[in-house]
User: What shape does this take?
Amino acid sequence: MTSSAQAASAATSPSQTSHRHIKEGFFSRTLPFWLLLPSILVLIVIQVIPGLFSFFLSTQTFERGEQIFVGLRNFERVFSSSAFNASLFHTLFFLIGYVALTMIAGFVIAQMLNRKLRLSAFYITVIFVPWVLSDVVVGLIFRLFIVPDYGLFSAFFADPQIFPPRGISILTTPAAPALVSGVPFPPAPALIYLIFASAWKALPFITLLILAALQTVSREVIESASIDGADGWRTVRYITFPLILPTLIVALFNLTLNGVNGVGLVFSLTGGGPGTATEVLSYLLYTIGFGRLDFGRAAALSVFMAVINLTLILLTLRISRSEREA
Amino acid sequence: MKSTFAPASLSPAFYRSRRRIAPWLLNGAMLVVCFFVLIPVLATILTSLKQQTDVQRNPPVLFPCDTPDGQFSLNTCRWSVEGYTRIIEPRPNAEALLGFEYAGRMVSVYLPNTLIYAVSGSVLVTALAGMAGYVFSRYRFRARRALMIGILAITGIPLLTNLIALYRIGVFLRQTFPGYEERLYVIVVYVGFFLPFSIWIVKSFFDTIPRELEEASFIDGCTPASSLIRIVAPLAAPGLTSAFLMAFVGIWNEFIAGYLLVGKATLRTAMFGLYDFIGQFVIGYQVLAAGCIMVAAPVVIMFLFFRKTFFRAMVEGALKG
Assistant: This one.
């Protein structure tokens, strides 16, 4: 990134005259540069260089201590592997369930909280507790519910009448045979359970975001809509929904990003299992890179994930900007 | 919420009746929601207070309070802090503070490490984000927009992408420099991870402080630097506090970076310790639950004290960014 140099030249340029009346010492004139410098250095060292280094690693392979340039072969091998194919679908199923569940629950709860109940502050605080828990803690808490035989929910899942034919044990029951070969659908119970655990953790943040947006919708608009004869559902559908749409989109992208990148919960809840049933992309990346120490292929996969992430962020940016200008 | 079609001609009494019922119903619904949200937490607290024999019951019991013939009785409750003592491992030692030394790795190694990483990391993040956020909020220069978008784009690099490279860089540093300090490396990595988001938060807080205050201070003879320290910094305290708190909770809860980058057993983090417990206490569910409570309690308490600051920081960070 050459922008730090640009910042310096810009800061010292005569066009920067917001404090013209001050005696312009060298330090005062270049103050913005010095204030920015440490942050930029840290970001270059910890984020930019490692990012580029990973990109470089994705074109390398390591054989008997030697590093060889292999071009795009790492990408080919990753994308053609069945583990990648399966984990792509796992991620997709996970994302759909996780995003839908969290958005719907968050929207409903935010609607209720927006009614200015006397205890709203208390409710928000309570609902927010899961947010401060770490992924590992959340995974472990939900794991304790379903440990074979002794978990609080284990008996419920093991009941053959609720889950025919023989009941299930989340941590050990594999996925049912795939309906279409190559597509691991239906997903394993563990993946569905993972969705619930993740949604539980993400719910507070999404609720708060939506609530903040709902509070900007003026009462008058809602009231005039109901005077014009709109019922509750239509008010939500035609008034509230369009007004908070930008926030909903931000929330959606936030969830997707966290869903793609989050890995701590998989670690402590299922460890990718049973088998590879909960091996989402980020967990696969971990197993390739740090389990098998195949850094070249792991880097290739990580570049693929970075592309997904950057696309999502640029889309969010574009949408939120166009909304602000409109 | 969903009501039948209500024409404008309905009597005021209709609306009043709707309003009178709604809060009652909504409060009930919200209490149910809160209860469901808290079930996992409450269940974990209960589990952490059971004995080994009570966590290994099939069918499981919520309260360890049943008599042998299956009756519930408060007199027979067998609460126990065994889970906690197995983590803390207090050993009587006349010379130590309070007469005990704490041998458990969680208390003697992992939690202190995490505290060091979280405090030093978030102090650095706050300082750097304060300076950078101030510049982005107050100065207009050519590269400003590019830099801001660059910082946002950086948040798009997945953690694991960087970690692959950072892991190899760490291995390289360890082999090349004998005096290499792993702890310092981890702290700098954490600062780098949490800085972009913090810069955005701090900038949006600075944006709410009127420029006139600073201009007045310039007229009174302040230089930009002294105006920043004397006028702006106190006003920006809430913003800096939120940056600090968010970074603190973020570093405290961070697992994968600490797990991969820290090699020495004595420098491991609390989240690593907790993850390690899963393999260590295979059926000691009360120990695992107690571990969760111990690791989570500090940040939960912190959150309860500063919840408004957290809420504001999150909304600002997500919507302005």
